[in-house]
Design brief:
The chain is of the alpha/beta class. It is built from five helices and six strands, in the order βαβαβαβαβαβ.
């Protein structure tokens, strides 16, 4: 079983499609609307709607998973979502859940230019999230990609 956070996003939906028929997926999303975006997901998908900062819920979601793909991230803050919560907070929770579950490997999606010293607040936050993973002791791969935009993104 692979756990995917931010599974309703463009990359999450594509990853679910790529894994369909190969292995079961546990898709973690944070809202009813996000959950509904996975109604037509192919393959065996266990959708869990949780608050990404809820450690107990994430620990439960990670149970029985061999790997985690952490796709949660934002490129713009809002009144309800800060870079710290979206990047660093969720990463702390995911890393701890990975430890608790004995996950074999964590994959984190970051952005080119991410470093804690970046002048851009988003890149600095992503850089701090990378540090959390690097210092965690959890076997991990950090992928730095250019900004990913897909259908329906602003």
């Amino acid at each position: 079983m692979i756990l995917i956070t931010g599974a309703n996003g463009n990359l999450g939906r594509r990853l679910i499609g790529a894994l369909a028929g190969r292995m079961p997926v546990r898709a973690v999303v944070r809202s009813e609307r996000a959950s509904s975006q996975l109604d037509d997901a192919p393959g065996e998908v266990d959708v869990r709607m949780i608050d990404y900062l809820d450690q107990a819920a994430m620990n439960e979601a990670a149970r029985d998973c061999r790997g985690i793909v952490h796709l949660v991230g934002i490129i713009k803050e809002s009144a309800t979502s800060t870079f710290d919560d979206a990047h660093e907070g969720t990463t702390r929770v995911v890393v701890e859940a990975a430890r608790q579950a004995g996950v074999e490997h964590l994959v984190y999606l970051s952005i080119l230019g991410s470093t804690p010293e970046a002048g851009n607040a988003c890149l600095a936050s992503k850089g701090r999230a990378e540090q959390i993973i690097e210092q965690s002791g959890v076997p991990a791969l950090i992928l730095r990609v250019p900004m990913v935009l897909g259908e329906g993104d602003y």
